[in-house]
Structures
1.
Amino acid sequence: MLDDFLVRAALAGLGVALAAAPLGCFVVWRRMAYFGDATAHAAILGVAIALALSVSVFAGALGVALLMALTVSALTARGYAMDTLLGVLAHSALAVGLVAVSLIDGIRIDLMAYLFGDILSVSRMDLAVIWTGAALVLAGLAWRWQALLTATLNSDLAYASGIDPKREQLVLTLALALVVAVAIKVVGVLLIAALLIIPAAAARPLAGTPERMALGAVLIASASALAGVWLSYLYDTPAGPSIVCCAGVAFALTGAVRAMGITNQ
Amino acid sequence: MRLIETKDLSVTLGRQTVLHHVDFHIDRGEIVTIVGPNGSGKSTLLRSLIGAVAVSGEIIRAANLRIGYVPQKLHIDPTLPMTVRRFMGLPRRHKAAAIDAALERAGLSGLEDRQMADLSGGQFQRVLLAHALIETPDLLILDEATQGLDQPGSAAFYRQIEEVRADMGCAVLMVSHELHVVMSASDRVVCLNGHVCCEGQPEHVASAPEYRAIFGSGTGGALALYRHDHDHDHAHHGHGCAQDPLTEEAS
């Protein structure tokens, strides 16, 4: 018999996994891994602002993540040297956020909860926010799926078919900010990018089409979320990192399966 | 009937003005080849026609114009699994039978479930062509589509395009720079070097003594090879062609 908080934790992990996995496929295909990092790390600044202004942490994180994602998106379009710039932005945002949190008087903040998540303290309200956010992200991806794939493949091909790749990029940017905001509670800002990228990367060797890769990523992410929560309950380990560890094991396993498949041929 | 027309089209990329006051048009069923040296704005012209670059001037497209575009290069990220069949269903899904028929027409039967990354260069280009044609476009645009193919390969590719034009009646706009290969079936050749240097019918051009045209050299008559130099001064664009590059003797 599962305790109630464990059920809520499992449901929270599942909700984030469902949204993060297919979005993570696009992050991988479009080589936006650092972009995800920058957006996630900026969210800690949003947490600080939200606490200072006494608004909801979700709203603060969403706002700043969105701002960061839009900024990075705009800079990408101008053709900056992205890896350096994103490295600067990601870590500056994280550092500014950490400093800002420490400057807030009168509130004792469990910083670890925001850096690494606090899935075992998920409330019913948090669950509602997570599943609403996840549903929005999934609906957005499903709605734009064909156009997103075309734009990811080649922007000129998209233009020729009347698809504006910049608009599709915006859809992804919004989805990314939303996933970051809902995932803070589950895995924390430091490990959100892992939840995006690892399931997608783990699904890659087994998939022949983009859809199968997205589905595989969803299955791997969901299994990792459930297994991670369960392991953290059994061994009293932090839940967020445990989830990421499970996803990492899945990545190693699928990589090994492919390697064996190749030697068999 | 005009499919697409540009009036006084100029394009600035970064700080460099790549195209100057280009007036260009292509009509229904026409085959037009754009030739020009590297950096002459050929690809930029094609990309502005499909709406991929910001332009000044005017681009008039026919209502409901369907464009089939074959890019110069299509890099598929190794992390993105993509079978030929799935690629054919982007951006709009098609019935499996329609995809099979399109691939069979392109001589690609049996490759439906192959990964795009595993195709040979020639197969890849033919998939791109079949992809552009599955929507029965009014205008087929090819940006140096035979890059990386050997001469028999590109000759076969161009022959296929002639067949496509004959079958489907779509207009074809293509760019060529490798050896200045121009399809003999071209209705018009436009020479571009930042601006339109000159244009005309290929027979006209071919019979002119300025051109050393070599027809059908091992290409089954599908190709004509033109050779001309582009070393004249273009410091002041928009002057027309005071010194026509095409009058220079080929060696």
2.
Amino acid sequence: MAEPFDPALYVPQAAAALGLPLAPEDLGDVISAFAVLARVAGPVMAFPLPEELIAAGVFVPNEGTRG
Amino acid sequence: MSVAAGVCATAAAVRTGERSAVEIVREALMRIAVRDGAINAFTTITEERALTAAAMVDAQRAAGRDPGPLAGVPFAVKNLYDIANIATVAGSHIDLDRAPASRDAALVRRLAEHGAVLVGALNMDEYAYGFSTENSHYGATRNPHDPARIAGGSSGGSAAAVAASLVPLTLGSDTNGSIRVPAALCGVFGLRPTFGRLSRAGMRLFAASLDVGGPFARSVEDLAIAYDALQGADPDDPACALCPPEPVMPILRQGFGGIRVAVATGYFSSQGAPDAFAAVERVATALGASQRIELPAAGLARAAAMIVTSVEGAELHLADLIAHAAEFDPMTRARFLAGALVPGAWYAHAQRLRRWYCQELAKLFRDVDVVLAPATPYPAFPIGQVSIELSGQQLPAAGHLGVFTQPLSFAGLPTLAAPVVQAGSLPLGVQIVAAPWREDLVFRVAAAAEELGVLVSSSPIAG
């Protein structure tokens, strides 16, 4: 069983991993904004998808690169 | 002070020589100078360029050459479209010192090639991340129907400029509803074409897998003639489909006989004020559309759209977020920063869910051709309002504006937002939606509903 998610712990660490400084005055708002994303991501991640379903963002090679 | 004549009427007057393009453009510049102070739609006026271009339109006609189907029509664009020799700020302060654009965006060029005359650039939410155009750097754009209220966003300047009759035609962009929301709240027509229909070359994007450009106007015909001018493949935008233009002007008056129109129910008939649903019902009744249809997993689609948007938007601006986050608008800053921290699996799963959702919608469009849905859950709220109560629940006032637009754009569907006749109250809109690449059906139904008198761009109550 995974531990309950705490955005206040995650946000500063994830920002550090990215090299993204967070000003102290922004931290609370960023945590709140991330908590919203985490809440909406819950049902998205819980929705099972078959392995063969390909992501909607499809790469199209440039025209003119063939031969 | 005159109001702007419509797109078709203006072009017809110039083409027949009844009016000169220079005269029309001078009047538009005068209207903007006198009236935009109260609306704050414009961030840049391109007066010199406009007068030069208008003189060229007049010279073409004088020389016996065709000045184009949009001859002398003044237009303006959301300030994320490149305009030659001007820095494309996309509602930001950070980019004020950006190098000026070397040439116009593709869609700006297309309108100009058809005879239209660019008169300026328009206000928006910073980097298009918002539904209200409450821009802290450039001020809020005010709703011409009530200047104390928002115009909607993020293409708020584009909708307000048309609603206030400053110009008859503008361009905006729509990631999750940024054309449809302000069109509805300002009482004008706005088109989000199928994803990939129009070129985005020379536009500053927000979330590249969702963004499209599109026009605003005050009638279906005006929207159609502009849309036809904007179409065409463009190798400069990798997402722009390699398909020939499919003009809608020739089919606009074919009526809607044989088109199966249904009202979206379930998700699309809750989470909003009663007036928003009543507006959709008025359009359905006028069209005799009694069929009801439930779109699968619309709430899930909206959630996935939020994930995709947050990740793509944040990545695009990551260098600036790292170097100087404090210079971002306080209205967007925390959301951009949070988007940068989203786990990769959330994004990839959301994009795979999008494929599933598109397949489900394709099944739905076997039984129906056009779907009607509310454009927004409520009319424009006062500038500065943070939350709104709906069915006893406190919701983010601006964020919730996209509840009905996000699930549709996530599937890339062509959608026309149209103002529904409202007696003595603030504007509300309906979304007219079809399967991908079926703008023809959307326009035929919109034109029919307009002829039936249920869709109309009303004159602002205020100003």
